[in-house]
């Protein structure tokens, strides 16, 4: 530390005294209850008698301080800005010709902050303009680099692939590619989001950065690039992906949060600033924003599966993103980061971070397995995050926090004649590594070489400058955040009344409902029951659009042929988007939700399911609506909706609408024209020129002209169910195709027809013609007819043969994954495929059909139903999934089959149940109705728990403790969970360790046996906790322990039970499974004895001089 001490001794007295004076001012102000960091100008009337001279003195001091900071910015930042591209180098020492977008944006932000401070000077000597244009130069330089990669944006918005991601690094002189996709991890969602966020802030302050229509279109496509951040695993702020640094990406809360903040900021924003026109406004998919928001909130305070916390979350929940306004969750996130990562010299990026440590092998790009154990306790500490905490304290008006971190950061800085230098990090020297590991925090860390080499860490310098400009009051919070991101949503300024605006959810939100009947006949019939509706003709000139037409309209947004950019990808518009009204070329358009679209999938044919979804959609709107104005729910009623057994239930729902309350949700039913003033209205100005030039046309819903009106529901034709006819498939396959077609003509029964068509399809393919239609066309007709007659087994079979895919499958998978779960696809008893990362719908479809079709054709669509239900349940009833880490869809279906067999006493087919009945059975299996059903037998409970994969709360912690005492690992079903590198690579509370334990348990094929294995692990853990001196020299073989417990159970059964019962136990374990675990002579008793026998047989040993005492 001698070099550092010499630097401190040689620093100019002015710099040191200035820094100390600022701290003294803050202490004095705090004692006098004065806020020196408030935006408001604090009157000094009672402190200074001569106000005029005081004002002159303060003004002069302000000019001196601004000039000092101008010199610092010129010497430390602007000197490194490339004259041609405007970019800044990311590593002056090792790669002076490489510019990183993130570092460049922070440098631009620091220069911009100083330009804001100079704006208040009457004679700024041209510095406001100079600094502002330097900022513009950098932001436009980044934009120019990315526009050269417009083809990657076009590909990425469809695929979200790392191979097509925008580059994060460029050649500082030319803006050209500097490292390829295989050499560097370019996929960093937070980087693009940060650029968009600062773009909005800087334009809001008056800078002109976007010049042309081409650039407007490109920025719109950057929004599309960000909208799917919630399902895009990336490499995060530290560019390494998982903490193992093995080349794998993962979902990062910091990336999702930054994207969410950027989408909020730019929605309805005019990128031309105050001089902009309607065609320079940027639009955001409100449903994509909501998915990012909910998934971001659900991940916090965790950063990712491999990182329990991370300092990258601090700039996301605080400045500059302010992505979270739930103060409790925000504070929990910051507190956890501080508690886990704070040191004396800064904060660790994350636990076991090897970057910058002396033991890291810098010759290799990736780490070896278990290598991160070497970095445990010696991670580098970064002063940068103390600076973020200072800024957070200023924005939160927390003087104690600002003072605390100013005091902490002061001894870490290097004071030189050229200004203060912020070290990049502090590391543990090689000769102190062992001592630091033995006693964390005991050794003095050394700073990285910025001070000695003069190669500054520009990101840190930029944040330091911003923090001090704020601290000294030279720039105000409101100036640094002109978009008012630090305020609650309702307090932020609105860009324009023509476009939607995020303002938060009102406490007394009312959902507006308008009922549109497809015909006058239906309208008159509903009127007889007191239900008032409107027809499409009655609401003219207002038009009713389907969500598909709205999707088509947005597909024209952002098109640019010169750049090769198409518009918005053809993704369905969600429930929030369809709850806005739209102004299109003078017409008001109302859109009904996707739920009422005539879908290829069959769920809409079950009215009970639809009614339940309507209620769920209303609850979703009440919870997630964040826009100005009220949501408007348009319900398009068709005659087919009131046919079948659910008609009364449907009318009851309409009556609830009329009463103004659906459950806990307040609704207002009315005529559409009267609901418009309170609605949220979005102007689609970008369509104006297209429609005028006849480049696009849109179809609206028209009133159906039907015959005479029905007087009541009794006059509507009812559905008559039919019984299934069994077909011998094997005999059918022996016939020729011509004979099979003759068989088909001989059957009117839908079940028989579906089976015959299935055989023909397998043999001849979809295009094989039967009379005047193909097999595909016949299957489609049969699907519709069986749906009308509620023959769900035939519906599912036909849908699977046709390869149907349900909407919202990918978001449902993502909703499951971000809550720390995994999903496996496959039929029970057969191979499964694990989905651990979000995927595109077609990828999920390929997995489902490849894993299900060979073993159970109908499960290919039933598993989609289950995924959709779980995606909803895990958001609304997360407690149902407590103790379930891996959701195995095939095993979940097996649990439902077991439940039906247990309740009904018969093998009722799941396939014959309606989608709404499937949902109810699933809820029952998950325990939603535990209080209302009889107590389950031990066998049935074990089967359900095993099939669901449910384990006790602290189960994974217990397995970790066993593994610590077991060098040979844990073995079950032929699978070995090794002690190393598991313990070296992971931590006890890490999500990936729990998933590894689940991977071991997934090798067990019997659900009940899985439950017994879980019980056995709990017993072993309890013994180890009570006898900490015990160690296992060999692998713990769980199968052997359970087998021995079962043998003891059988022997004692002979003594206590009848001979007949012994006979039934010889060849199976069902009686053992059906025995309660904790009862007298329960299974737990025998498992404990088996473990103790293992002890006595010498399979485990104790440490020397220790006595083993099993209690």
TrEMBL record:
Lipid positions (S-farnesyl cysteine): 1108
Keyword Secreted: no
Main location: membrane
Residue ranges of domain Phosphorylase b kinase regulatory subunit alpha/beta C-terminal in the record: 939-1084
Family listed: Belongs to the phosphorylase b kinase regulatory chain family.
Keyword annotations of the record: Calmodulin-binding, Carbohydrate metabolism, Cell membrane, Glycogen metabolism, Lipoprotein, Membrane, Prenylation
GO MF term list: calmodulin binding
Job description of the protein: Phosphorylase b kinase catalyzes the phosphorylation of serine in certain substrates, including troponin I.
Its membrane topology: Lipid-anchor
Subcellular location: Cell membrane
Signal peptide annotation: none
Domain GH15-like: 69-891
InterPro entries cross-referenced by the UniProt entry: 6-hairpin_glycosidase_sf (IPR008928), 6hp_glycosidase-like_sf (IPR012341), ARM-type_fold (IPR016024), GH15-like (IPR011613), KPBA/B_C (IPR045583), PHK_A/B_su (IPR008734)
Modification(s) after translation: Although the final Cys may be farnesylated, the terminal tripeptide is probably not removed, and the C-terminus is not methylated.
Xref: SUPFAM superfamilies: ARM repeat (SSF48371), Six-hairpin glycosidases (SSF48208)
Keyword Cell membrane: yes
Annotated protein name in UniProt: Phosphorylase b kinase regulatory subunit
Biological-process GO terms, alphabetical: glycogen metabolic process
Pathway the protein takes part in: Glycan biosynthesis; glycogen metabolism
Cellular component annotations (GO), alphabetically ordered: phosphorylase kinase complex; plasma membrane
């Amino acid at each position: 530390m001698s070099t550092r001490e010499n630097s401190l001794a040689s620093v100019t007295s002015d710099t040191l005294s200035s820094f100390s004076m600022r701290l003294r001012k803050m202490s004095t102000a705090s004692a006098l209850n004065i806020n020196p960091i408030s935006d408001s100008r604090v009157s000094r009337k009672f402190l200074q008698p001569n106000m005029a001279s005081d004002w002159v003195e303060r003004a002069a001091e302000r000019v001196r301080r601004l000039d000092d900071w101008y010199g610092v910015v010129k010497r430390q930042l602007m000197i490194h800005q490339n004259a041609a591209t405007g970019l800044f180098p990311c590593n002056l020492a090792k790669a002076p010709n490489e510019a990183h977008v993130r570092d460049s944006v922070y440098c631009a932000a620091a220069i911009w902050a100083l330009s804001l401070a100079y704006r208040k000077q009457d004679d700024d000597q041209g510095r406001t303009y100079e600094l502002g244009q330097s900022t513009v130069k950098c932001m436009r330089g980044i934009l120019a680099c990315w526009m050269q990669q417009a083809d990657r944006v076009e590909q990425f918005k469809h695929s979200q692939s790392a191979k097509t991601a925008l580059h994060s690094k460029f050649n500082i002189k030319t803006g050209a590619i500097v490292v390829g996709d295989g050499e560097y991890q370019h996929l960093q969602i937070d980087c693009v989001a940060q650029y968009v966020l600062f773009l909005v802030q800087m334009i809001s302050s008056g800078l002109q950065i976007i010049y042309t229509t081409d650039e407007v279109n490109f920025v719109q496509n950057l929004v599309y690039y960000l909208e799917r951040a919630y399902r895009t695993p990336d490499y995060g702020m530290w560019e390494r992906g998982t903490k193992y640094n093995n080349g794998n990406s993962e979902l990062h809360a910091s990336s999702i949060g930054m994207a969410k903040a950027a989408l909020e900021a730019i929605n309805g924003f005019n990128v031309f600033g105050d001089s902009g026109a309607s065609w320079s406004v940027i639009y955001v998919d409100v449903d994509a924003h909501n998915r990012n928001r909910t998934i971001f909130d659900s991940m916090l305070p965790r950063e990712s599966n491999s990182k329990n916390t991370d300092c990258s979350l601090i700039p996301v929940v605080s400045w500059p993103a302010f992505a979270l306004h739930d103060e409790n969750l925000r504070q929990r996130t910051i507190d956890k980061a501080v508690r886990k990562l704070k040191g004396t010299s800064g904060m660790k990026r994350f636990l076991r971070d090897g970057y910058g440590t002396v033991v890291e092998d810098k010759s290799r790009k990736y780490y070896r397995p278990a290598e991160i154990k070497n970095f445990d306790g010696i991670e580098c500490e970064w002063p940068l995050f103390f600076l973020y905490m200072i800024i957070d304290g200023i924005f939160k008006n927390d003087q104690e926090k600002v003072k605390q971190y100013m005091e902490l950061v002061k001894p870490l800085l290097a004071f030189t004649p050229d200004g203060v230098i912020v070290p990049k990090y502090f590391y543990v020297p090689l000769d102190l590594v062992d001592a630091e590991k033995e006693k964390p925090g005991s050794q003095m860390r050394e700073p990285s070489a910025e001070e000695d080499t003069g190669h500054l860490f520009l990101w840190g310098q930029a944040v330091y400058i911003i923090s001090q400009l704020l601290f000294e009051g030279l720039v105000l919070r409101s100036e640094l955040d002109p978009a008012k991101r630090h305020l609650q949503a309702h307090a932020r300024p609105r860009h324009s009344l023509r476009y939607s605006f995020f303002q938060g959810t009102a406490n007394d939100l009312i959902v507006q409902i308008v009922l549109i009947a497809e015909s006058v006949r239906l309208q008159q019939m509903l009127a007889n029951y007191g239900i008032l509706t409107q027809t499409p003709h009655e609401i003219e000139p207002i038009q009713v659009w389907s969500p598909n037409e709205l999707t088509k309209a947005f597909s024209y947004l952002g098109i640019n042929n010169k750049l090769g950019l198409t518009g918005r990808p053809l993704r369905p518009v969600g429930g929030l988007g369809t709850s806005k009204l739209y102004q299109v070329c003078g017409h008001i358009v109302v859109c009904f939700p996707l739920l009422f679209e005539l879908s290829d999938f069959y769920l809409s044919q079950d009215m009970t399911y639809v009614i339940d979804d309507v209620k769920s959609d209303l609850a979703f709107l009440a919870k997630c609506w964040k826009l100005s104005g009220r949501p408007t729910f348009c319900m398009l009623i068709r005659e087919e909706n009131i046919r079948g057994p659910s008609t009364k239930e449907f009318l009851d729902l309409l009556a609830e609408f009329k009463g103004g309350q659906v459950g806990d949700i307040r609704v207002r039913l009315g005529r559409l024209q009267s609901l418009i003033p309170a609605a949220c209205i979005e102007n689609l100005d970008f369509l104006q020129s297209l429609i005028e030039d006849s480049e696009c046309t849109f179809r609206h819903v028209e009133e159906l002209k039907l015959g005479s009106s029905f007087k009541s529901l009794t006059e509507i034709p009812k559905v008559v169910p039919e019984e299934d006819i069994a077909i011998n498939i094997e005999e059918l396959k022996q016939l020729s195709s011509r004979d099979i077609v003759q068989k088909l003509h001989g059957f009117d029964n839908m079940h028989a027809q579906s089976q015959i068509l299935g055989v023909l399809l397998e043999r001849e393919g979809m295009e094989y013609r039967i009379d005047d239609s193909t097999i595909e066309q016949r299957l489609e007709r049969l699907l519709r007819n069986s749906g009308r007659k509620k023959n769900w087994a035939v519906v599912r079979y036909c849908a699977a043969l046709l390869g149907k895919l349900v909407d919202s499958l990918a978001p449902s998978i993502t909703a499951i994954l971000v809550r720390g779960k995994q999903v496996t696809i496959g039929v029970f008893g057969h191979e499964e495929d694990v989905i651990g990362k979000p995927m595109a719908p077609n990828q999920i479809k390929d997995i489902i059909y490849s894993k299900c079709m060979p073993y159970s054709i109908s499960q290919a669509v039933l598993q989609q139903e289950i995924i959709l239900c779980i995606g909803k349940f895990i958001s609304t009833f997360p407690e149902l999934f407590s103790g379930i880490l891996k959701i195995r869809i095939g095993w979940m279906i097996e649990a439902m089959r077991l439940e039906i067999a247990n309740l009904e006493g018969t093998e009722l087919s799941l396939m014959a149940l309606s989608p709404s009945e499937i949902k109810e059975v699933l809820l029952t299996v998950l325990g939603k109705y535990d209080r209302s059903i009889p107590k389950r037998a031990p066998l049935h409970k074990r089967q359900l728990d095993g099939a669901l994969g449910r384990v006790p709360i602290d189960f994974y912690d217990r397995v970790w403790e066993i593994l610590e005492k077991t060098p040979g690992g844990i073995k079950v079903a032929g699978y070995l969970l090794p002690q190393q590198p598991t313990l070296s690579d992971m931590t006890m509370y890490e999500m990936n360790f729990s998933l590894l334990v689940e991977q071991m348990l997934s090798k067990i094929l019997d659900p009940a046996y899985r439950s017994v294995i879980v019980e056995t692990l709990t017993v072993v853990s309890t013994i180890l906790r009570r006898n900490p001196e015990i160690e296992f020299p060999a692998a713990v073989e769980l199968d052997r322990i359970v087998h021995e417990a079962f043998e003891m159970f059988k022997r004692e059964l002979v003594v206590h039970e009848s001979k007949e019962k012994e006979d039934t136990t010889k060849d199976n374990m069902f009686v053992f499974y059906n025995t309660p675990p904790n009862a007298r002579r329960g299974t737990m008793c025998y498992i404990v004895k088996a473990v103790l026998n293992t002890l006595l047989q010498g399979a485990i040993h104790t440490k020397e001089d220790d006595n083993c005492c099993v209690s």
